[in-house]
DNA sequence: TCTGCCCGGATCGTATATGATTTGATACAT
DNA sequence: ATGTATCAAATCATATACGATCCGGGCAGA
C-alpha cells in the first residue's frame, strides 16, 4: 500500500486543509490585506494540485476573507474604513441577538467564568497587554453567545469575528480609553443577564457595546491628531 | 476558430453558470429538499466537466442551500421545522435592521411604490392568489431594504430569502388569516417610515412583522387540526 | 518622445484520467 | 434464518494537461 493522490492526511480533504491553512495564514498576518494569493504557488507550497487550492480560495471568497476576480486571481480582502464599519455594524447586530438568545440558558458557572475573564482583561489594561486583551475579549463574548440555540446566528457571529481578527493588524487598533469603557460595559452586561433582564435590553446592551467600539474608531479617524 | 474547453458562454465561468442553474432548479422546485445532487449527472446534463459543478455545489453549500458530505455527495438542504425557525429568526433580525437603515434614505416615490405593491397584495387576497401574493411580498420588502447602505446586511437578507423561497413548497405555506394581518402590518410599517419614526421603532416593527409569520406557522404546527 | 500594436510569460479555467471511498448486494458460515 | 465477509458499481477527490485570458514590455511609426 502506498500513499496515493486521493488520500487524505487526516479526516480532512486537501481542499479543507488548504482552506484552513490559508485562513490561518491570513489570521496570523502572514498574508496581509492586499496580498496576492497565487493558486500554483500555494499548491506547490502545500504539495497538492491547484484544484483543491482553488476550491479553498473560492470558499474564503464566500466568507468574505479574500476577493477574487476571473482570470485575474485572488487577494486578501482589503478592509478599509467603510468595510470596517459595515462589518462592525453587522457583527453588532448578530452578536447582540445571539447574546440575547443565549442569556436565558446561561448557568451561574458560565457567568462566573465570564466575570473572571473580564477581571483578567482589566489586568491586561494595567500591564498594557493589548494582545492578551483582544484574545480575552473574544473569549468573553464567546462565553456569552456560544449557548445561542440558533446555529445560523452563531455562524454569522463567527464569520464577523473571523473577518475582524484576520484583518485586525491593519485597522483594528487598540484604543486604551475605549478598552476601559469596554470592561465596564462587560460588567454591566453581565449584571443585566444575571438579573434576568428583558431579552431586548440584553440585545441592545450587547449591540451598543460593540457599536461603542466602532464609534471610538470613527472618532479617532476624524481626529487622528492624538496618537 | 473553434469553441474551446476554457471558453465562457457569457462573461460567466461554467462554475458560475452551474451555480445559477442548480440554484434556479432548487428555487423552482425541480430539485426539492432531500434531492440528491450527483456531480457527474449534473455535469453531463450541462455538458461540462465535473470540476465546475463541484465548485458550484460547494458554493451552494456555503450558502446553506445544499448539504455536502465528503465521499458521500450533496443533497438539497432539508428544511425541517427547526431549520425554518432558525432561518426566519435570523432573517427577521437582518431584514429588520436593513429596513431600519434604509428607511431614512427612502424617497416619496419609493414609498408610494411600496404602497401600491401592498394594495396589489390585498387584491391577491380577494382573488385568492397565494403565488402572486408571495411574489409581491418579496417585492414589497425588497423595495424597503434595497436602499440599505450596508452590503453585508443586504447579502444576508438575500440569502435568507433565497433559503426560504428555495424551500417554500415543503413548509412555507400560505396562511390566509396571517396574510391579512401581513397587509395591515405593511401599512403600519410604511406609516412609521413616512412619519420619520425612530430607527429602533422601524427595526422592531419590521422584525416583529416577520416573527408574526413565524408565530402563525408555529401555531398551525401545534394545532394542525384546522386545514 | 509619444502612441499604438503585438507578443511572450504568468495565471486562471476546465477537461480528462485515475485513485480512494462508500454503499449495497451477494455468498457463505453459523 | 441471521449475521458477516467479500466484491462490484457508483461516486467523490485529486493530479495532470492544456486552452483561454490578462498583463506588461518591447518595437514600429508618427
Structure in words:
- The structure is a homodimer of 227-residue chains.
- Chain A is mainly alpha-helical and 227 residues long.
- Chain A has 2 domains: 14-76, Winged helix-like DNA-binding domain superfamily/Winged helix DNA-binding domain (Arc Repressor Mutant, subunit A); 81-222, GntR ligand-binding domain-like (Four Helix Bundle (Hemerythrin (Met), subunit A)), CATH 1.20.120.530.
- Helix content of chain A is 67%, strand content 4%.
- Chain A is built from 9 helices and 3 strands; from the N terminus they run αβααββαααααα.
- The first copy, chain A, binds a DNA duplex (30 and 30 nucleotides) through residues 4-8, 13-15, 38-40, 48-52, 54, 70-73.
Summary?
Two copies of one chain form a homodimer. By secondary structure, chain A is mainly alpha-helical.
What order do the helices and strands come in, and which of them pair?
The structure is a homodimer of 227-residue chains.
Chain A: H1 14-27, E1 36-37, H2 39-46, H3 50-63, E2 66-69, E3 73-76, H4 81-102, H5 108-126, H6 130-145, H7 151-166, H8 176-194, H9 199-222
Antiparallel strand pairs in A: 1-3, 2-3
Helix pairs in contact in A: 1-3, 2-3, 4-7, 4-9, 5-6, 5-8, 8-9
Chain A binds a DNA duplex (30 and 30 nucleotides) through helix 3.
**Tally of structural domains of chain A:** 2
Q: Give the CATH superfamily of the largest domain in chain A.
A: GntR ligand-binding domain-like
Low-pLDDT parts of chain A are 1-8
Using the alpha-carbon principal axes, give the shape of chain A.
globular
Radius of gyration of chain A (Å): 20 Å
The CATH topology name of the largest domain in chain A reads: Four Helix Bundle (Hemerythrin (Met), subunit A)
- Helix content estimate of chain A: 55-70%
- What distance lies between the first and last C-alpha atoms of chain A, to the nearest angstrom? 62 Å
Please write the CATH class name of the largest domain in chain A.
Mainly Alpha
Strand content of chain A: under 5%
How is the quaternary structure best described?
A: homodimer
Please tally the β strands of chain A and state the result: 3
Sequence of secondary-structure elements of chain A: HEHHEEHHHHHH
Enumerate the strands of the largest sheet of chain A in spatial order, edge to edge or round the barrel: 1-3-2
The CATH architecture of the largest domain in chain A: Up-down Bundle
